[in-house]
Amino acid sequence: MRAATRFAAPAAVLLALLAAVPAGADAAGGRVRPTTDFARAEPGEEDPGGAATAHHAPTARAFAQPPANLPFGRLLDFKVGDAVFRKLWVSAPSSTRSSDGLGPLWNARSCQSCHVRDGRGRPPPAGETATSLLLRLSIPPQTDADRRALADGDLAVVPDPTYGVQLQPFAVQGHRGEGSAAIAWTPVQVRLADGTVIALRRPTYTVRDLGYGPLHPQAMLSPRVAPPMIGLGLVEMIAEADILAGADPEDGDGDGIAGRPNRLARGPGGVPALGRFGWKAGQPTLAQQAAEAFALDMGLSATSGRAPWGDCTPRQPECRGAPHGGTGEDAVEVAPALLDLVVFYVRHLAVPARRDVADPRVLHGKRLFYASGCIGCHTPKFVTAADPARPELSGLLVWPYSDFLLHDMGEGLADGRPEGRAGGRDWRTPPLWGIGLTEVVSGHTFLLHDGRARGLLEAILWHGGEAEAAKRRVAAMRRADREALLTFLRSL
Ligand code: HEC
Ligand code: HEC
Q1: pTM of the predicted structure, to 2 decimals
Q2: CB 230 near ligand 2, within 6 Å
């Protein structure tokens, strides 16, 4: 990664910066140089979302709050958006035309079913069908046309010819579900320098109860749990140039950490865009991510041009021929106003305030986080761009602890399934804000893209590839230092 690269920022951004950055902060554009002073907390550090932080008690509702600075007049939109997020969709035809169109194939009936309390999903307990962990599917390119479409970015993946790009375990009445993810766990022991032995668990994924015959022999599976829903509007507001300034694809500075953008050939309006959302940064905007979720997870078309049958393939003709919930010519099942409201809601779910920022153990852990090279990917802070349409999210000093870039994380974490510019070992650095509240919000501490880690230390010990050196520094720590590092993470 490259630190605090200089570039010319638009005047509006600079003005926002002057207003937002506390005296003493060293900023270039929206990138802010990491601190070197660990004797005290930094100005603003307790509010990771700046003025858009939520100051709610650290309870199970901590991720479901609007930002403190949301004007009263917009609170109603937030609440109605929340209702759309929780809305249970039903199959068509139904007497409530505004709620029908589910499926025919689906993973869940509402956004909230996976993003429970706007928190994190989990691998299924033994014997249960996975809901908040889903399997993406694709196959390697088979033809020159496939190869061209991938190279040009017209396709992010080549779908499995029968099952499409995602496995949907459930179906509306009269149709078969596609099957479900089966996970086998293998224990892996790791010995730390101080003699402590940690047992990791390595998952292997297969699909059982296939409803439509075999998968393609070269089918690639990518397991993903639902990520937490906080601070996403702030992520959307970080200037593309500020994220790209951290990229170092050839590792020019020789620190072993590269960082590449998942550039999408076609974002909103058909123009190229930076992928920011999803575990491989496959989606450029919250609107596109939400439309994709409606289509793949619930079988609902939310924008014109999308089929009402979601992920059903030509080899699933009954599925494509089933009644749908579309009204009007383009057969959109989710009215545009509902899509706008749900996007408004997820855009404004606030980052919770930090706890204990000035605690000496937290500050010691923070120093170790910086010194171990974690910030090579988990970039502490940015200043968001200015957008007159989103004044509450503009020009804020925010602390996501992510560079929003892709990194090769080694064979241990690899899914072997490329997506757009992201390779089979690549993952986007996830933001760490709010991670200390995972248990209180979601009732578990499963971390990483597939929830394999059962806590913070396991998540760190799975780091490999570009993060191998940082991981080793943690494994070599004295117990008290390791505990301080984890205490810092729990304060986020
Ligand atoms: C079946 C479970 C499921 C349902 C239902 C679901 N999601 Fe998700 N959501 C996920 C998973 C899994 C991911 C990660 C996807 C990826 O890595 O590509 C995700 C990612 C997201 C993200 C990106 C978060 C980030 O940090 O990058 C947003 C925003 C989102 N979902 C919103 C929604 C909305 C809005 C709905 C309802 C329209 C919805 N989701 C329904 C499972 C679900
Ligand atoms: C080379 C880039 C890189 C470095 C260096 C790095 N990380 Fe990460 N980190 C990632 C990526 C990418 C993921 C997601 C991997 C996955 O889900 O498979 C991740 C995931 C995590 C998670 C779990 C987050 C979640 O939402 O599940 C934690 C906690 C974490 N890192 C902490 C650390 C700590 C502590 C260090 C320093 C010792 C560190 N990381 C160094 C890139 C990095």
Answers
A1: 0.95
A2: no
* Pocket of ligand 2 contains residue 449 by CB under 6 Å: yes
* pLDDT band at 328; cut points 50, 70, 90: low
The number of C-alpha atoms within 13 Å of 399 and in the hemisphere containing its C-beta is 24
Residue 131 Cα to ligand 1 middle (Å): 12
Spacing, Cα 311 to ligand 1 middle (Å)? 15
Candidates 10, 453, 478; CA nearest to 201 is 453
458 alpha carbon – ligand 2 mean position (Å):
11
Please say if the pLDDT value at position 9 is more than 70. no
Q: How confident is the model at residue 300 (pLDDT cuts 50, 70, 90)?
A: very high
C-alpha 460 – ligand 2 centre gap (Å): 6
Name the nearest CA neighbour of 210 among 173, 243, 181, 237: 181
User: Where residue 27 falls among pLDDT bands split at 50, 70, 90?
Assistant: low
C-beta of residue 129 within 8 angstroms of C-beta of residue 120:
no
More confident residue, 6 or 466: 466
Which of 105, 111, 343, 404 is the pocket-test mutation for ligand 1 (most atoms within 8 Å of CB)? 111
* 108 ligand 1 Cβ < 6 A: yes
